[in-house]
Amino acid sequence: MQLLTKPNIDKLSSKRISKEEALDIYKNADLFELGEWANNIRKKHHPDTKPVTFIIDRNINYTNVCDAACRFCAFAFWPGDKRGYINSYETIYEKTKELVDLGGTQLLLQGGHNPELKIEYYIDLFQRLKKDFPGVTLHALSPSEIDHICRVSALDTQTVLKRLIEAGLNSIPGGGAEILVDRVRNIISPLKIKSDRWLNVMEEAHRAGLKTTATMMYGHVETLEERIEHMDRIRQLQDKTGGFTAFISWTFQKENNPLGREIEKSATSLEYLKTLALSRIYLDNIVNFQSSWVTQGIQIGQVALTFGANDMGGTMLEENVVSAAGTLCKTTIKEIIHAIHSTGKDAAQRDTQYKVLKVISCK
Ligand code: SF4
Description:
This protein is an alpha/beta fold. The chain has one domain: Alpha-Beta Barrel (TIM Barrel). It is 44% helix and 15% strand. The strands form 3 sheets. It has a 4-stranded mixed beta sheet. A 4-stranded parallel beta sheet has the order 4-3-2-10. The protein has a 4-stranded parallel beta sheet with strand order 5-6-7-8, covered by helices on one side. Helix 5 links the parallel strand 3 and strand 4. The longest helix has 18 residues. The radius of gyration is 20 Å and the shape is globular. Bound molecules: iron/sulfur cluster.
């Protein structure tokens, strides 16, 4: 029988860790030592540990029509399905106005790969939004949507990015990364872009001057080695461009999707905390890490702040669940501030680039 030896954290923490070391740490390190190590790295990036940041944002899904058919998606409908929609500008305007009225600064615009929408739709949408709401940051279109626009508009990536930036695009969310290993992508989202293309769009975006985030959705069919490979590919690109502002990871949600019916067990909270801490340690070149309180619940979301996270993310309101004007939004903002305050920290409202706009003291 092989005896497990605990990794030597004192020795490992003085250097950048390798993929093999990351695997060993994940399997054998003590949970609380791992958390402390991740938290020390957080302190290096954020010496003032008192504020925990959050952003007031709103998520608008401009269309639910999509020809990617990802097996974990509970949102999209195939082109031609009667349940498909494209939001009118009037609808998007009203939702954005509610965001602005609540002091929000970021509009997260994401949608399906709708074959009807060519680049002109996005240019028109961004120009109108910027004219009506010049102060709102357009954090929009994940790499797979950018790739889709390139294909349906028969344009290259650089041209698409250039034209979208001219129209008002400010930054790109890291959605659609899932796990950047093609074996995994071929199982969970076979029609969506492969790993190299996701990274290529991000690299082009960084070179065009945009900042973006990086994400990871895990706890489905990937192995631990593949989870670490994902982190490694993000770390390599960040070394090259420095364009990622944050790393955001969450566990796969089993409800209402075909993949969920095949997965026996969801990732546990323990697995979440270990993965968060490991990603903070591995991705030594990324400054901000979000706590995934939306998928983990508010309590684990608070604990995550001692496992390397420094940010509570956004109010991220899914439009489909917001019924009366802004009601849920107000509740969510209060909930986030209360959750931060109850850990003894100050709640700091930030913008998309993590610049603090306002501090709400916990005293
Ligand atoms: S690309 Fe996005 S919207 Fe389309 S099926 Fe996949 S997850 Fe759903």
